[in-house]
Amino acid sequence: MLSSMSRLPLSWDKREASARDGEYLLGIKRLRRLYCNVGIGFHIQVLPDGKVTGVHNENRYSLLEISPVERGVVTLFGVRSGLFVAMSNKGKLYGSGHYNEECKFKENLLANNYNAYESAAHPGMYIGLSKTGKTKRGNRVTPAMTMTHFLPRV
Q1: What's the average model confidence in pLDDT over 50-59?
Q2: Is residue 2 helix, strand or coil?
Q3: What distances in angstroms separate CA 42 from CA 45, 64, 94, 149, one per listed residue?
Q4: CA-to-CA distance for 65 and 28, rounded, in angstroms?
């Protein structure tokens, strides 16, 4: 009896563990402001007209809801504007009223404890802010540049 019971739980435990690993952080939404220490320092904001820019002082448009959708992949949702941060195939950031593939970003933890956000739909393109707070095209920046380093702040 002991040998027959030991076979079943092992295979069941493996499936259970892999299902838990795949659901890591799913459904946990974090309210944060993404701070970039470039120029005088900027937070990403999503305006109601769909424009995504950097703003020095925190405001109601800079509060984002970071929601995991897959392991290591998140969406950035502007709480006040009601728009998702999205990146076009040309690397331009915009606010989208509907969730789609361009709204997914790979959240990469960097060695300096900042995060870089790479477009899941367009690999190799990153969210970045210039020293004046304007968004940079995703295909013009790399994760080695400080303009792509963001610190999630409460």
Answers
A1: 96
A2: helix
A3: 9, 14, 17, 11
A4: 10
The DSSP-derived string for 83-127 is EEEEE-TTS-EEEESS--GGGEEEEEE-TTS-EEEEESSSTT-B-
β-strand pairing of 30-36 with 73-78? unpaired
Q: pLDDT (tens digit, 9 = 90+) per residue, 69-118?
A: 999 999 999 999 999 999 999 999 999 999 999 999 999 999 999 999 99
| Structure tokens given for 49 | 């007209």
What confidence score (pLDDT) does residue 54 get? 97
CA-based nearest residue to 152, from 31, 54, 59, 52 = 31
State the residue for tokens 């080695």: 144
The region, left, alpha or beta by phi > 0 then psi within -120 to 50, assigned to residue 72 is left
What is the distance between the alpha carbons of residues 140 and 130, in angstroms, rounded to a whole number?
11
How far apart are alpha carbons 107 and 71 in whole angstroms?
Answer: 9
